[in-house]
Amino acid sequence: MADGGAGAAFGPAFLGVSRSLSGREWRQRPAEAGLIRSHMQALNLEEPLARALAARGVRADQGADFLQPTLKALFPDPSSFMDMDAAAGAILDALQAKASIHVFADYDVDGASSAALLVRWFRAVGAELPIYVPDRLTEGYGPSARAFDTLKASGAELVITVDCGAAANEAVAHATAIGLKVVVIDHHMMREHPPVCAAVVNPNRPGCNSGQGNLAAAGVVFVLLAALNREARGRGMFADLKEPDIRQWLDLAAMGAICDVTGLTGFNRALTSLGLRRMSDWSNPGLRALLA
């Protein structure tokens, strides 16, 4: 919205309404006329919705997936993420060796959702996953040498960091020096070389060509769960064990995406849309308790 006559450059009044109750002039975002027509014809849409799609930059071949996103159409190949296969392999190696695996999670909703996703997968395959969340005031953000010392003293052998760790080169080097294996699952922008460890999975890591840079950490973890299922299936782990249906945890992935204010396009849009639908059935006791 804007004052004055600037709105004339943005097209005519929308649905016959040119001003708000407070007198502010409504302005339509510019949209290519040809793209509007393409959306109307391809999807049998009315002009206002087709205009909204075009104004958002949705291409003609993307309209259906934007309006009705599905995991089947939009789920990425986990192997398109750099180090995803290595991460799944390292985690399952430790799991099959009955090594002590811990998760180090950031203290925000995305970190908590990411940790909860991993805990649910581990429990589904008959294992427990202790969670370490740093104290925001005394430990700050991300893993530290002190935190890794604490985890080592508690018996950890493999540590999975979620929603943090991609910039913790010195702390991860310390973890390696004291005999800890580390798998980093993150989504934050990276300015330097990744830490040297078992795996660093981050769609915003230089050289990663997954095209999923708008995912929150919970979204990256959700893809990791698919990679774990695939790797475990290949190892025959589900011969006597039911394969976890990760779709039941879409609500947690959606929480991370929404609370981190991520871009709702592509796979992340499907993840969030279906996660909200899952959330609305109130099947998650933790969410029920939070909203009670």
Question: Would you give an account of this structure?
Answer:
By secondary structure, this protein is of the alpha/beta class. It folds into 2 domains: 10-57, no CATH class; 78-291, Alpha-Beta Complex (inorganic pyrophosphatase (n-terminal core)), CATH 3.90.1640. Helix content is 43%, strand content 7%. It is built from 12 helices and 5 strands. It has helices spanning 33-43, 47-55, 63-67, 71-74, 84-96, 109-124, 145-153, 169-177, 217-234, 250-259, 266-279, 285-291; strands at 101-105, 131-132, 158-162, 181-185, 199-201. A 5-stranded parallel sheet has the order 2-1-3-4-5, with helices on both faces. Helix 1 (33-43) crosses helix 2 (47-55), helix 6 (109-124) runs parallel beside helix 9 and helix 7 runs parallel beside helix 8 (169-177). The longest helix is centred in the C-terminal third of the chain and has 18 residues, at 217-234.
Separation of termini? 37 Å
Helix content: 40-55%
- CATH architecture assignment of the largest domain: Alpha-Beta Complex
Note the overall shape: elongated
Task: Tell me the total number of β-strands.
Answer: 5
Average predicted local confidence, pLDDT: 93
Number of domains: 2
Do you know the CATH topology of the largest domain? inorganic pyrophosphatase (n-terminal core)
Report the total helices: 12
Describe the secondary structure blueprint for this structure:
Layout: H1 33-43, H2 47-55, H3 63-67, H4 71-74, H5 84-96, E1 101-105, H6 109-124, E2 131-132, H7 145-153, E3 158-162, H8 169-177, E4 181-185, E5 199-201, H9 217-234, H10 250-259, H11 266-279, H12 285-291
Parallel strand pairs: 1-2, 1-3, 3-4, 4-5
Helix pairs in contact: 1-2, 5-9, 6-9, 6-10, 7-8, 9-10, 10-11
